[in-house]
Design goal:
With about 500 residues, the protein is an alpha/beta fold. It is built from 18 helices and 18 strands. Helix content is about 40%, strand content about 20%. This is Thiamine-phosphate synthase.
């Protein structure tokens, strides 16, 4: 029998209250952690007596036992992430704030809080004293807080102000990032949540699902974000994963008692329709943009830095090549691109030009490869109208969703392993993420790039990508032509077998 190794599962704590009905609270938190491959620990603040229609009552746990739970867990199972849910008692909240202040720096855990101030059935859990502790003691310790609109208004003490001013108030009081949930904007066909952090600002929009079985949505969302953070995703990506997890769980929610039923917990979301549409301030919105298709699988995709390299590989029948020119005068770059495009026609080679999209257009290359930065400056409608294929680099869920919304010809997923070829601002993604990204792109060809060697090739192909791009695995080898032929053969064999 397979025995799971708990040490390999990231540990996440839920500091929250018990929901006797099982759909929200600690019970929902633990379901979510387990479904997202985390080990969940629970620190119970209160026991509520509730069912699907009402909260009948609650009793808070003693401060002594509350702190004993925290300390006993910290000694043996320190958390990577803490999720805070319902703490309906000012004394416990104060204890928690001082405990977090004492241990957060040393243990470097991330703290995410869902400020449950009232239940969805209308039960009010807070008093003024509790709100004041949230504002002045807890907020400065939070890496992310996930209020809905009424909670944001209450916490900010700016009941009549614009949402932006209310959000600004929470940031001024010390919260590092906010996810403002838009579900309480009644009557809209879509729900838009706003993620605000020092590094990024995102709007996440999804269709509003018509189900009444939505008990525990806030608990599940914040727990899914916590679980994704525990797997090392940054806050923006964790929020995207959390939102997709919630949409998936809501799509399959079910009746329990006479009132709002519960969410169905599934594993990692991969189907595109569960993921939100992202809007970022810097993005241009295109109504209809459609890029020519590239035959999938793309297969073996060498990236070379000169037309000389291209000529050296042509006798070995490459199918796809990228010309990635990083040096030279404007004249030299244009000459190389013109020569490479002419050669690509003679040899029926699908040639992508990196960065220089104007020259790719001018010389009518097969396609263009662009990075995320280039997307704001390149004339994408001109590239699409000219029938050139477009490939886009991505390094995260946020970039992947942004790329998918443009419906490019392929999406590059990188960097998978550490690479010496380029200084990367992000961390290597690794194979587990590659597999998730590739699954989300079942409708778009994908290419893995970064640190891919002959030894790693099979593991990369098994993640479900439609191509593998390499630089040094060919051009830095003692015998580049042999390396090229071996790679090409292995990749072709793989796709022939899995076609
Ligand atoms: C297939 C493939 N994937 C990613 C890249 C990187 O492109 P970009 O983000 O534009 O960075 P530079 O190549 O310009 O450093 C690529 N070239 N090809
Ligand atoms: C251009 C680029 N973009 C992401 S990783 C990378 C370099 C890949 O080179 P190598 O295959 O030598 O790691």
């Amino acid at each position: 029998m397979h025995k799971p190794d708990l040490a390999t599962k990231p540990i996440v704590w839920a500091i929250a209250s018990s929901d006797s009905g099982g759909g929200a609270g600690i019970q929902a938190d633990l379901h979510t952690f387990a479904a997202l491959d985390c080990h969940g620990c629970s620190v119970i603040a209160a026991v509520t007596a509730q069912n699907s229609t009402e909260v009948v009552g609650y009793e808070a746990i003693s401060q002594a036992l509350f702190v004993t739970q925290l300390n006993c867990l910290l000694n043996d199972m320190p958390p990577r992430v803490i999720k805070i849910g319902l703490i309906p008692d000012a004394g416990l909240l104060e204890q928690l704030a001082s405990w977090l202040a004492q241990h957060k720096n040393q243990y470097q855990f991330i703290v995410i809080a869902d400020p449950v101030l009232s239940s969805s059935t209308g039960y009010n859990f807070v008093r003024q004293s509790t709100l004041s502790i949230w504002r002045h003691q807890l907020l400065p310790l939070l890496d992310l807080i996930t209020p809905n609109l009424p909670e944001l208004a209450l916490l900010s003490q700016l009941l009549q102000a614009e949402v932006a001013s209310q959000a600004e108030q929470l940031l001024q009081w010390g919260a590092k990032a906010l996810l403002i949930k838009g579900g309480h904007c009644n009557g809209t066909a879509d729900i838009t949540d706003h993620f605000i952090s020092p590094n990024s600002s995102l709007q996440l929009t999804q269709p509003r699902l018509s189900t009444v079985h939505n008990h525990g949505t806030g608990c599940v969302l914040s727990s899914a974000i916590a679980a994704a953070c525990a797997h090392g995703y940054d806050l923006a990506d964790s929020t995207i994963i959390g939102r997709a997890y919630l949409q998936q769980a809501l799509c399959h929610s079910y009746a329990t008692g006479k009132g709002a039923g519960s969410l169905q917990h599934h594993g990692w979301p991969t189907e595109p329709h569960y993921f939100p549409k992202l809007t970022q301030p810097q993005d241009t919105h295109y109504d209809t943009l459609s890029f020519a298709a590239i035959a999938a699988p793309i297969g073996f995709y060498p990236v070379v830095d000169s037309v000389q390299w291209l000529k050296r590989l042509l006798p070995f029948e490459p199918d796809v090549i990228q010309l990635r020119l990083k040096h030279g005068t404007a004249l030299e770059i244009e000459q190389q691109i013109a020569e490479a495009v002419a050669l690509s026609r003679d040899y029926k080679l699908r040639l992508f030009i990196n960065d220089h999209w104007q020259l790719a257009l001018k010389h009518a290359a097969y396609g263009v490869h662009l990075g995320q930065q280039d997307l704001t400056t390149a004339n994408l409608p001109a590239i699409a109208a000219a029938g050139l294929r477009l490939g886009i680099s991505t390094h995260s869920y946020a970039e992947l969703l942004r790329a998918r919304q443009l419906q490019p010809s392929y999406i590059a997923l990188g960097h998978i392993f550490a690479t010496q070829t380029k200084q990367m601002p992000s961390q290597p993604q690794g194979l587990a993420r590659l597999k998730r990204y590739a699954a989300l792109c079942s409708d778009t060809p994908t290419v893995a790039i970064g640190g891919i060697t002959a030894e790693r090739l099979v593991a990369v192909l098994q993640c479900g990508v439609s191509g593998v791009a390499v630089v040094s695995a060919v051009t830095a080898q003692a015998e580049p032509e042999q390396a090229f032929s071996r790679f090409k053969h292995q990749v072709e064999q793989h796709y022939a077998h899995y076609a």
